């Protein structure tokens, strides 16, 4: 199962044919700030199986590339400016290993971000969803029609600007602009267990999300010798006399990620502050959080994703529902859904003791901006089958022995998700809202 998964997703090998491996190696370690253009599948040929017709699709996506949080923007406008000045000063004193070119790139660096724009969808995020929509439509033209009709399409997003805009640009990729304007969207709800079960799961919030102990492995890794060595390499390289703090190191890494995602044709100087070996350490630090807070670390993180899985199976069985359903949500939801389904599970829990480079649970591959999971229902003679795609590539869910997985195999394997999903009970939610 695990072998199959790592074989299914040889991102670098697969992307060898496109641009991914020709860009700097560091770009492969941007974690959840990886832009979707590094991940996307440009082969959008129709996916057809003899004797079968595609009849329905259900797709769950993370919003596209966004701006940072308010806190991150404030740090970029303060700490990052000080670091920039310090880098230039040290260079002028003849310290460090940066070149004059990199220094002039730093000297020109500034940020115009406004804390008011926090977490809003970036221009790149608009493009990501528009182009993703076009490719999905090319693959499944018989279910993702070119003409909008609200009995054939359903779009849902969380109560946030970035998912609403992602949905909007997705429709602009599907339909002509006039049609897209008419697309009907239901009002987003703050209580929406299908799209964001974890936000409204009391037990998860108490036991995991707001529990510092749950982050133990990440905290320990943050204080590890390996992390200190990485920060020291970075500091020496920048010509600093003291060693960067973990927060400063992570801020530089984040700035590199965001700016790489935002600007296709511009190189962020922050990416020149560290090498690939350091990038892998900073990447792992973030992955530890995504494993323990959003992934396999605790059952209560991913068990409530049954609500979403139930929606998927209902979509397939209820032929009254529009045949194409597109949901727009967040990294926290997609990761937990993948853990619920048994995807990308490492052989052993991720810990501070051992960074495994070839781990399947790696945000740079599985949690880029606009990350998406699509399920396509096929009618094959008298049997229904389901095709699963992650990042537009066919994958097999753990219980499946073939790409077109019989519906009976899935309903058996995920029986409890479909039939025993008492959300409020498992979440210790007192009241139904
Ligand atoms: C179609 O749009 C109308 C609003 O114009 C809405 O009330 C209705 O629920 C929509 N139908 C579906 C199937 O989404
Ligand atoms: C926090 O997490 C630890 C480790 O899993 C657990 O033992 C503890 O009970 C949790 N605290 C709360 C308030 O749930
Ligand atoms: C697929 O669709 C075609 C054309 O509508 C139809 O003739 C055929 O019977 C369908 N096949 C299956 C397996 O449903």
Outline the secondary-structure elements:
Elements lengths: L1 H7 L2 H5 L36 E11 L7 H8 L1 H14 L7 H8 L15 H17 L13 E5 L3 H14 L2 H6 L10 H4 L5 H8 L6 H7 L2 H14 L7 H17 L13 H17 L6 H4 L3 H12 L6 E6 L1 H11 L21 H4 L5 E9 L2 E8 L2 E3 L9 E2 H7 L1 H5 L3 H4 L7
Parallel strand pairs: 1-3, 2-3
Antiparallel strand pairs: 1-4, 4-5, 5-6, 5-7
Bound molecules: 2-acetamido-2-deoxy-beta-D-glucopyranose (NAG) (3 copies).
Describe the structure.
The protein is α/β, with parallel strands linked by helices and 433 residues long. It has 21 helices and 7 strands. Helix 4 (79-92) runs antiparallel to helix 5 (100-107), helix 11 (216-222) runs antiparallel to helix 14 (276-292) and helix 12 (225-238) crosses helix 14. The two termini are 39 Å apart. 45% of the residues are buried. Residues 1-23 have low confidence and may be disordered.
Molecular shape = globular
Q: If you average the pLDDT, what whole number results?
A: 94
What fraction, in percent, of the residue positions are helical?
40-55%
Instruction: Give the helices and strands as they follow along the chain.
Output: HHEHHHHEHHHHHHHHHHEHHEEEEHHH
**Number of contiguous helices:** 21
- Strand content is 5-15%
- Characterize the largest beta sheet: strand count, sense, and whether it forms a barrel: 7 strands, mixed
What gap, in angstroms, lies between the N and C termini? 39 Å
User: What would you call the structural class?
Assistant: alpha/beta
Residue stretches low in confidence (pLDDT < 50, at least 5 long) are 1-23
Task: List how many beta strands DSSP finds.
Answer: 7
Backbone CA Rg: 22 Å
Q: What ligands are attached or bound here?
A: 2-acetamido-2-deoxy-beta-D-glucopyranose
């Amino acid at each position: 199962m695990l072998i199959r998964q790592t074989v299914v997703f040889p991102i670098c090998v697969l992307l060898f044919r496109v641009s991914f491996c020709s860009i700097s190696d560091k770009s492969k370690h941007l974690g959840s700030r990886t832009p979707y253009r590094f991940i996307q599948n440009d082969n959008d040929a129709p996916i057809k199986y003899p004797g079968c017709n595609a009849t329905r699709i259900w797709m769950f996506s993370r919003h596209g590339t966004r701006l940072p949080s308010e806190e991150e923007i404030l740090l970029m406008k303060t700490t990052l400016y000080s670091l920039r000045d310090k880098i230039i000063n040290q260079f002028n004193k003849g310290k460090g290993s940066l070149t004059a070119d990199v220094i002039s790139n730093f000297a020109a660096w500034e940020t115009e971000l406004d804390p008011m724009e926090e977490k809003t969808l970036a221009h790149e995020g608009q493009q990501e969803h528009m182009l993703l929509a076009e490719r999905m439509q090319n693959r499944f033209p018989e279910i993702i029609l070119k003409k909008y009709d609200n009995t054939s399409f359903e779009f849902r997003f969380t109560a946030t600007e970035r998912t609403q805009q992602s949905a909007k640009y997705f429709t602009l990729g599907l339909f002509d602009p006039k049609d897209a304007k008419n697309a009907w969207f239901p009002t987003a709800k703050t209580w929406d267990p299908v799209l964001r079960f974890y936000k409204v799961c009391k037990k998860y919030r108490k036991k995991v999300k707001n529990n510092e102990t749950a982050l133990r492995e990440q905290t320990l890794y943050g204080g590890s010798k390996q992390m200190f060595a990485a920060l020291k390499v970075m500091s020496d390289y920048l010509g600093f006399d003291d060693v960067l703090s973990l927060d400063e190191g992570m801020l530089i890494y984040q700035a590199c990620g965001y700016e790489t995602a935002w600007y296709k044709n511009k190189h962020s100087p922050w990416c020149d502050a560290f090498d690939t070996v350091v990038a892998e350490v900073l990447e792992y630090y973030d992955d530890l959080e995504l494993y323990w807070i959003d992934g396999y670390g605790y059952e209560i993180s991913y068990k409530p994703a049954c609500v979403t899985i139930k929606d998927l199976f209902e979509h397939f069985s209820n032929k009254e529902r529009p045949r194409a359903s597109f949901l727009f949500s967040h990294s926290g939801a997609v990761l937990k859904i993948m853990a619920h389904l048994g995807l990308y599970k490492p052989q052993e829990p991720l810990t501070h003791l051992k960074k495994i480079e070839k781990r399947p649970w790696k945000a740079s591959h599985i949690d880029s901006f606009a990350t998406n999971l699509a399920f396509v229902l096929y009618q094959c003679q008298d049997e229904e089958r389901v095709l699963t795609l992650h990042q537009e590539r066919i994958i097999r869910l753990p219980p499946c022995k073939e790409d077109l997985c019989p519906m009976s195999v899935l309903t058996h394997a995920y029986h409890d998700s479909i039939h025993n999903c008492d959300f409020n009970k498992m979440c210790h939610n007192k009241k139904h809202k």
